[in-house]
Here is the input.
Amino acid sequence: MTWGFLSVADFIAEVIRGLNAGGVVAVATVIGPPAADTSVLGRKLVVTQDGEILGTLGSASIDRQIANNLMSTMGEATTPHLIPYPLSPKEQARLNVAVPELELFLEFLVPAPTLLIAGGGHIAVPLCTMGKSLGFRVAVVDDRPDFANRERFPDADQVIAGDFGEVLAGRIPVNSSSYVVIVTRGHANDEAALRAVLESHAAYIGMIGSSKKVKTIMDRMRESGVPQKQLDQVYSPIGLDIAAETPAEIALSILAEIVHLRRCGTPHPSSMKLATRQAR
Here is the structure.
């Protein structure tokens, strides 16, 4: 927690840091009343979802109350709005203002969702194109440069050629705004990618594969000590049951599952993950 006046550079840096961490960033700005001292107008308080608080509105007591207000509403309030803040005589003296209240503008900055595709094969291409059209920031990872390049994925925001485990564990942020789709070319790479993201706070982790392949990987991870609760997070088989056959149809089924989860907060009834569990 840092109390103090924020420079423009510090303000921008903190907003970017908070958004890159995958959380909402709330900002309170003093915008009035017009009669307020000009040294008060424009002061900002920044609160990130991971609890970092920077800046000041001019008084520790005001900062504490507004920070608590922002933290308590961060998960539900995303529409910018104005609120009055009545000033006590002590706060008026502290701020050296004669006005009875301040006008605060509260805004909530929400990170863009990221579609993180592990594997640059035939399904990844339509996944990337459709993901961009749906408003996702798209990142593609593959350990083969021939399958991880701008020519193959011109619509992607980020393309990285490198080891799946190393890239997903450190080079790309995986957070609550991340939707991870694992579509690599083999068991070993699928497992490496899954292990790298399983302990993250990703909103969605899906892995393609036959029932046999999925069982093999899950059994191996379970035997190595991975808790069943973590494995239960994985959507595998992946996608909705729409009898998809072509790469584009499979990509559509995966993105439909992701969009439903993102908008509704629960798996779609046609999720193949649910169908598989019910059949056990």
Summary: The radius of gyration is 23 Å.
